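re: that chain from earlier
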Amino acid sequence: MPRKTIRDRSNPTDTNRRLNRVRHIVDNIIGTEDPDDIMQSILESLKDTVLIPDVGKYYTFVYAPKTSSITYDAHPLVGVTNIYSWGFKGVNFHWNRVRQYSWEEIVGSLHIVNSSELKDLKALPFAKIIK
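^ sequence. v structure.
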């Protein structure tokens, strides 16, 4: 079996485009993009979706709560910690806090984020905090 090159031995979780579906977004960001445009690119790249998340997995989605008096992130990046009949709780990486999300307030599906993509998504400015 041939030896791996230095490039092949590098950490594939951060830069290998086959394992990281959002690397191209990070590579092309210039810093003036709108959070909605970045989120659209992310959703187009993360085609694998679910309706019900798994505890311990990562997801991003569009969120639109019915309560008008709360501050919320319309583009959460979440590590799910608990699942309930009404929704789920998870760490929102934009706030580094546990938040809760109800099923009926999620717009569309949850887009699956692989652990190899988490670092890049944390660095992208796609949070959309609404007061």
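The chain is about 25% helix and 30% strand.
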